[in-house]
TrEMBL record, chain A:
It comes from the Bacteria. The lineage of its organism: Bacteria, Pseudomonadati, Pseudomonadota, Alphaproteobacteria, Rhodospirillales. This is Uncharacterized protein.
Automatic annotation (TrEMBL), chain B:
Residues 98-151 form the HTH cro/C1-type domain. This is Helix-turn-helix protein. Coiled coil: none annotated. It comes from Nitrospirillum amazonense. One of its GO terms (molecular function) is DNA binding. Pfam families: HTH_3. Gene3D superfamilies: lambda repressor-like DNA-binding domains. SUPFAM superfamilies: lambda repressor-like DNA-binding domains.
Length: 117, 171
């Protein structure tokens, strides 16, 4: 069933929130990409075409070359797109924040084993 | 460090839209994407720049996540002119229409009219319409030196579609 972009974005956030957490930054980016591509494959009505530069009605995950460092948060990376900053932590945490500062999602990374026990 | 294209874009925008705030969000890698945030109350926009790609502009509503640009400009001066068009137009982003295309290319109505063998008034009337024949659109764009691509896209296939003969019929 084809859904409007706003509906698909909300579905993406909901699915990402409940997905098993990642353990590191690469895993977090891979998780986010898999969830978003899954939603778009099911409901965008547009085939996945990352090589095409032009808007096609589909949402795409951040690309690795779009990474920025995050001052004061060692190991974190920030990915920028038109309307959001997406941050992934060295522990697999994910934050999606609108440019006006509104936090849309804050997902902890996978708990590390053995520490403190 | 900002490259020549980004500097030229900022300078051109300063001329076209005095008082505009322009912020540059630089990538960590030299080959990465720059994001340029532009604010001129009540207008705000974001522009993407990548090496080898140029400037990507968004003229559709901002309602999702990770959308690609709607428009692409190789030259910083033309990208800045398009941003100025959007800023001085509606608050809501709108795609290019005929007059916008002609203005970006710096072609006067009278020049285009000569190319199409009509008078200037005919061009003015045409540009004021929000619905024209495909053949007229083709004639207009081809007279400016461009091409119109027509494709249809469905969930299971997409393909180019036959174009009518370019002909300026509307008066």
């Amino acid at each position: 069933m084809v859904l409007a972009k706003t509906q698909r974005f909300q579905l993406f956030l909901e699915r990402l929130a409940v997905a098993p957490p990642a353990a590191d930054a690469d895993g977090a980016l891979a998780l986010l990409s898999a969830v978003l591509n899954g939603v778009e494959d099911e409901h965008a009505g547009v085939p996945h075409d990352p090589a095409n530069w032009q808007a096609d009605g589909r949402m795409y995950p951040p690309q690795a070359d779009a990474a920025r460092l995050v001052p004061g948060r060692d190991g974190w990376r920030r990915y920028r797109n038109r309307g959001h900053n997406t941050l992934v932590g060295v522990d697999g945490a994910i934050e999606i924040v609108r440019l006006d500062g509104t936090c849309l999602l804050r997902k902890p990374g996978a708990p590390s084993e053995g520490k403190g026990s | 460090m900002m490259n020549a294209d980004l500097v030229a874009f900022k300078q051109e925008l300063a001329v076209l839209l005095p008082g505009t705030t322009v912020s540059f969000d630089a990538p960590h890698e030299a080959t990465g994407s720059w994001w340029i945030d532009i604010a001129r109350d009540p207008y705000a926009a974001t522009v993407l720049w990548r090496p080898g790609f140029g400037f990507g502009l968004f003229s559709s509503p901002n309602e999702g996540y990770g959308e690609k640009p709607d428009e692409r400009y190789a030259e910083p001066q033309m990208a800045a002119r398009r941003v100025a068009q959007l800023a001085l137009g509606n608050e809501t982003p709108t795609p290019l229409w005929l007059r916008d295309v002609r203005a970006l290319l710096g072609v006067a109505q009278v020049t285009l009219a000569e190319e199409l063998h009509v008078n200037q008034a005919a061009i003015s009337r045409l540009e004021a319409r929000d619905d024209i024949k495909l053949s007229t659109l083709l004639a207009y764009i081809e007279a400016l030196g461009g091409q119109v691509e027509m494709r249809v896209r469905f969930k299971d296939f997409e393909a180019g579609i036959a174009k009518p003969v370019a002909r300026l019929e509307e008066s």
